[in-house]
Amino acid sequence: MHERQLLEAKRLLTYTSMTIYEMSDVLGFSDPTNFTRLFRRRVGISPKAFRDRLKADQDNEA
Question: Is the pTM of this model over 0.85?
Answer without folding.
Answer: yes
